[in-house]
Amino acid sequence: MHYIVRTIAVVCSIFLCALLGACGAAKFERASGSNSAKPLVTPQAAAGRKKIIALGDSLTAGFGLAERESYPYLLQEKLKSDGYDYEVVNAGVSGDTSLGGLERADWVLDQENARILILELGANDLLRGMPPARMKQNLDKIIKKAKARNIDVLLCGMLAPPTAGSNYQRDFTMAFPDLADEHKVAFVPFILEGIATKRELNQADGIHPNPEGAKIMMQTVYAGLKPLLRNEM
Question: Does residue 13 have an active-site annotation?
């Protein structure tokens, strides 16, 4: 609970403002993802390389950013500079919910030599008021699919604001650490740590990181990912 208490104050203020336009933002994401059932960016496959699958929504897809500014691309460059030979596959789709991720999970995870899954979903469930229990169930199934394939998982958490209601806030926010504990997987408590509420790190919508924000998001993900790489040099 300590990391939830530590970060809840940070996210509350962004949602108090951003959720005033949540319906418009959700529609915006749905529109941007409605014509694509596959990731917006898919690096060229290299069959012999170990793969890290980044499964997520617009935060992963790099909504509003150039390909080279998205966090999966930046992560690929960071891994390379640190001596790790991985191909990072951007399986992010703007507007995707946990259900959409579950529906895509099999073909995403069946890629040859997949070693690690970075799971970043749930923000759109929140924006659309989906029941936290249903979201948790979908994420649970994705994690189980990954583990059945011997793929390590890094679960990225999201926080709900007080405006969602105390019960919804609690159930949504705690779904992520509960899943991480239950499945004993690596965990990032809040993927927008250090970015939320900071205008200079976000696009005009106040929700999606700008290029500088994406760099911070990559570093947050990398810190959670690195323990999974210790035996993969």
Answer: no
pTM for the full predicted model: 0.83
Q: Of the candidates 123, 132, 139, which has an alpha carbon nearest to the alpha carbon of residue 205?
A: 123
* 48 pLDDT tier (thresholds 50, 70, 90): confident
Question: Any catalytic annotation for residue 208?
Answer: yes
Token pair of 136 as six digits: 């948790």
Distance CA(63)–CA(88), nearest Å, equals 17
Candidates 57, 58, 70, 94; catalytic one: 58
How many domains does the chain fold into?
Answer: 1
Q: State which residues form the domain around 106.
A: 2-229
2 is catalytic: no
Catalytic residue among 94, 96, 98, 208: 208
Check which CATH number belongs to the domain holding 150 and give it.
Answer: 3.40.50.1110
Per residue in 82-134, pLDDT tens?
999 999 999 999 999 999 999 999 999 999 999 999 999 999 999 999 999 99
